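Annotated sample (chain length 206).
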Amino acid sequence: MNKSQAHAIVGGLTQTTKMPCKSYSLPTIACKTGYRMAQVVGSICSSCYANKGNYLKYANNIEPAQHARLVSLSDPLWIDAMVTLIGNDRYFRWHDSGDLQNFQHLLNIVTIADKCPNTQFWIPTKEANLVKQYLDTFGSFPKNLIVRVSATKRDSKPPKFEFTSTVHLANNAIGTECPSYKQGGKCLDCRNCWDKSISNISYKYH
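Output written by the structure step:
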């Protein structure tokens, strides 16, 4: 499979201005937990960054591509196509928009990590039940895949998982603070989100 064929199957990858690597996005309307939390005042999802800024400015181009990727998840060639597009990239982020859809989706991502051993993968997710199901079944994720379960409310404690993320507004950061707000909203040379020596990443609310 060449990259043109792979792109046609999965709808391509994304490259956000913040990320130091390629990423993958789905429509936020397809988020399971996130879509419900978006209706809760004060939740992180109620002011989701993926529903404003450039995501909103370029929605006419972004949203059709996101929905095409959502449909492609059931394609039997999805795993191979993703492996082809990721190649030997050093870092990759899952879901700069959207989230895990079901347990099979998570299993497929694990398979991709196994097939791309030279790539460090990061997933931020609010689908804690899927992560728990995986860990209860298999014990651990591949060493090159870090899954951070995200808090659902601002200034709340990290979820009870080994790797997590939170958002702080009034309170101090818990664990390691993301420095992007001091760097023009960019990661630059920071790779903390992919670092398994860091238990919790705390993002400043914006």
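Annotation: The chain has seven helices and seven strands.
Annotation: Confidence is low (pLDDT under 50) at residues 50-60.
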